[in-house]
């Protein structure tokens, strides 16, 4: 019997990359998983790959009302949601003064607004039930000030701060709120872009700088991030809240 048997988990950005690994791990641990994403084909493929019980949701969670629709979809499919993983994100990594209004908005929307809106949509029902696990995906770059990440860090730093505030506010409601903060993570999409030579030259410097910060001298793998999320999603992590768990190969140590 898996550690999440009988639990219902929602993973935003759950169809690709880190989110796909998280969805797969939570399902393997016994959870019924709702995969949320922007691209219907990717979401449908992920749901098929996970197999039953799994469900999908397509929508832009940065927009008003979408998170509430996701909550309703999860409830209709499986009943009450026990675990919310706020993984949806992604930003435009540029030197600060090269950002435009469009890239600024996209970075804040994709990372902070998606997380904030989902927390607001899912917390009331968790509080009524007296149980919930919220895991936000943050970023190691918030701690180390990685090259060209200032705007991205503004968004992810908000994700970290939100978790701490919610953790204290809902500490007596059976709800824990934590952050998993990965360093540079290898994903299939990034590997493919680097192999094909289609990634911007400056991205290579950013990634080289990221690895240089890591004592283990390598990026994280997606399943290593998923393992940390799976632990914080479990019932027996009940006394851990308001924490930022670095999956970073030692690039920052506490």
UniProtKB/TrEMBL annotation:
InterPro entries: NAD(P)-bd_dom_sf, Sc_DH/Rdtase_CS, SDR, SDR_fam. Keywords: Oxidoreductase, Plasmid. It comes from the Bacteria. SUPFAM superfamilies: NAD(P)-binding Rossmann-fold domains. Belongs to the short-chain dehydrogenases/reductases (SDR) family. PANTHER family: 3-OXOACYL-(ACYL-CARRIER-PROTEIN) REDUCTASE, 3-OXOACYL-[ACYL-CARRIER-PROTEIN] REDUCTASE FABG. This is 2,3-dihydroxy-2,3-dihydro-p-cumate dehydrogenase. It comes from Prauserella muralis.
